[in-house]
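Bench notes, afternoon.
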Amino acid sequence: MKILTLLVLTIGLIVLPAGAQAPGAASTADPLTRAANGTAISHPSSTQVYPVIDGPRTISVPVNMVYVPAGKFTVGTGPGETTAELDGYCIGKFPVTNAEYKAFLDATSSTRCPAYWSGGTYPEGKANHPVVYISLTQAIAYADWMSKQTGWKVTIPTSNEWEKAARGPKAYLYPWGNTADATYQDGVLASKFNFNAVAAADYLKNHPQMEVTYNNRQSKYFGTKTTVERIAGYDDAGNPTYLAVGANGSVRGWVSHTTYTGFIYTDLFTALNSKGGNTSAVGSYEAGKSAYGCYDMAGNVWNWCASTIVATNGAEKGQTVNEIRGGSWYATATSCRSVSIGEGRSPATGYNTVGFRLVMHPAAKP
């Protein structure tokens, strides 16, 4: 067998061909779905693995995961920056998809589907999109079931495990570097990730005359109709900030919480949520993957973490909650950084922008 010596930056890992299997591993099954880049995503009960050589050791890595080697890494940035150390672990190459979550529900005869599913299944065309509206409690149940099926120790990542996998050995602020690296010109957004400018740019370019209605009953603008290009976030004095995308991907007119106006307080936003939000198929942003090979760690969906924090941002500010990482299709570019921004959610509740990925702690062969 010809060995491919793929070096991941300076990590010193050698990844053998994707079809290779450790002795005793299950045979290759038909993919459950495929990522946007064509990568096969196996059934969550599959025990198919590929070997990664880390120095003198060989690690059997599940085909839906990548390996992050042991060692020290940077946590945080600025005055709060610290150093931590972790043993080697495997982490999901992608967030868990709708198709994978349905396979779990089918196998366990569960009818507890996410809120945006209908008739026991996800919306058409979204098999390879990340599942959302999943509480941390439900995500843990998925991981526990997968552990029983595979014999592996599968869990939800801690904040440190998530951050190391996202930032890579150079401790970037985004998986690819230290800037968001998004530009908007002549109605075209160039980006390495899915954040709120993706939705705003799409609707402004392709549906500017679509009729929308402000639909929050607490707003004095409730029931007022407008068009996409005239959506506005109003201040208390009634001054509008119209929906627009800046040259660096910043979005204006997205939300005004004081008057319950802006894009997120329209029936268009409600319709998006009814289909699982403006998510993209996992693996859609090849240039946005981390040095370790993880996709969608900036934007698309927030990822649940097992770690708890006292939130410093959002409606949960001041509450002890489970941390979420990575931003989402709803978030600003700054919120999609790979460091903690103080966001967290109640573990018992599902949210329209929060999904999850898994970690596995492997046994290495000498």
